[in-house]
Write a structure and sequence with these properties.
about 240 residues; 12 helices; about 80% helix; globular
Length: about 240
């Protein structure tokens, strides 16, 4: 067996975790969308609350584990999972469990992409002239600020925010820290909505899933985005002035 054949097989094996994530994401979008829904939560909220009251620790472990699977395999229902965390555990520690599950799942995607795509493909993406290259330049100039920004902006898809840092050489510890802290604002909004679901269920109402785009919620998040961009702007000004 030649060295090139060995390298090719090793490359295929490294790509299996990322391929599994992509396949699960596609299958989940097709088969699980109707199950990981608000209606499912509405129909089962009494049973979930009863199970939580009788098995508190097991409920926490099971909930975080399910959230890791949803985030790690990019399954539909992340928003519903966050609402469920608020419903079961309140704003706190519900937001902690939500952020923990999302961060672990996101880290799984990050590691699978970094391990599976390999240094050669990542180098090609980093060395190209497209959007990934421009994002890499921005991240390299100020990694902390740019990583916080892609987490804070609601319009950036979660999978994309997990994938791009793995392609541009972001250190694992920096990725984990910015992911955990950067998703807190959005998670806090939906966790607080979930904490009030008991009253909504009694009135047979549905929460406003677009609440994060309302101005009284969006403006503070945009303010955090501006703070994240401030070091980048200051660095650009200093560069222009030759400082």
């Amino acid at each position: 067996m030649t060295q090139s054949t060995v390298n090719r097989k090793a490359g295929l094996l490294r790509g299996l975790p990322l391929l599994a994530i992509l396949i699960c994401a596609a299958l989940g979008a097709f088969f699980l969308r109707d199950y990981l829904s608000f209606e499912t939560l509405r129909e089962n909220h009494e049973g979930l609350a009863s199970f939580r009251d009788e098995n508190r620790v097991l409920t926490v472990l099971a909930f975080v584990g399910v959230y890791v699977l949803i985030a790690g395999f990019s399954l539909p229902g992340a928003t519903i999972a966050t609402l469920t965390g608020g419903f079961l555990f309140g704003v706190f520690p519900g937001v902690l469990y939500n952020v923990l599950g999302a961060t672990i799942g996101a880290t799984a995607i990050f590691l699978a992409a970094r391990w599976g795509l390999g240094d050669m493909l990542a180098a090609r993406l980093r060395g190209g002239d497209g959007a990934v290259s421009r994002i890499k330049t921005g991240i390299d100039d100020n990694q902390w600020s740019m990583l916080f920004l892609i987490r804070l902006v609601p319009a950036v898809p979660f999978f994309v925010a997990n994938l791009i840092p793995s392609l541009v050489g972001v250190p694992l510890h920096r990725y984990v820290i910015t992911t955990f802290l950067g998703i807190i604002p959005g998670a806090l909004v939906y966790t607080s909505v979930g904490a009030g679901l008991g009253d909504l269920f009694e009135r047979d109402e549905t929460p406003d899933f677009g609440i994060i785009f309302e101005w009284h919620i969006l403006l503070p998040i945009l303010g955090l985005c501006a703070l994240a961009l401030l070091p980048v702007a200051l660095k650009a000004v200093r560069r222009e002035k030759g400082l």
